[in-house]
Amino acid sequence: MSGRILAIVAVLASLLAFAGTSQAAPAQHRDTALVLTVQYSDVEDNAFKATVLTCERGDNHPRRALACATLASAAADLRAMRSDDRACTFIYAPVEVRMFGFWRGEPVDQVHTYPNSCVMLAHTGAVFDF
């Protein structure tokens, strides 16, 4: 549990650092800074991972360009993302994703639970693939 708290603190610190640099230039306040989290319930200790996605500059998301394009095509709405039609099993192992921060300057805070990680990746593509 303490590892999860440390991960959240590290991700939030990154987001706050980004927000601090954005305030210096209010005219450019249309940037994206999103904290993305994934909580797996099918593994021991409910594995948790998190990252920061910034579309306008580098970050630690391994598939930043594709993740930003996927979000843009769905107007940053998790429910509007389309499945890539991959075949997934019917094993129920819930995965909860959360996206919060700013998308093109607008506040975002969304949570969605998928029946398993395959379905989650089919619907969200590169966004939560980190």
UniProtKB/TrEMBL annotation:
Gene3D superfamilies, A to Z: Subtilisin inhibitor-like
Keywords noted in UniProt: Disulfide bond, Protease inhibitor, Secreted, Serine protease inhibitor, Signal
All residue ranges annotated as the Subtilisin inhibitor domain in the record: 32-116
A molecular function GO annotation: serine-type endopeptidase inhibitor activity
Keyword Cell cycle: no
Record's signal peptide: 1-24
GO cellular component: extracellular region
Name of the molecule in the record: Subtilisin inhibitor domain-containing protein
Organism: Lentzea aerocolonigenes (Lechevalieria aerocolonigenes)
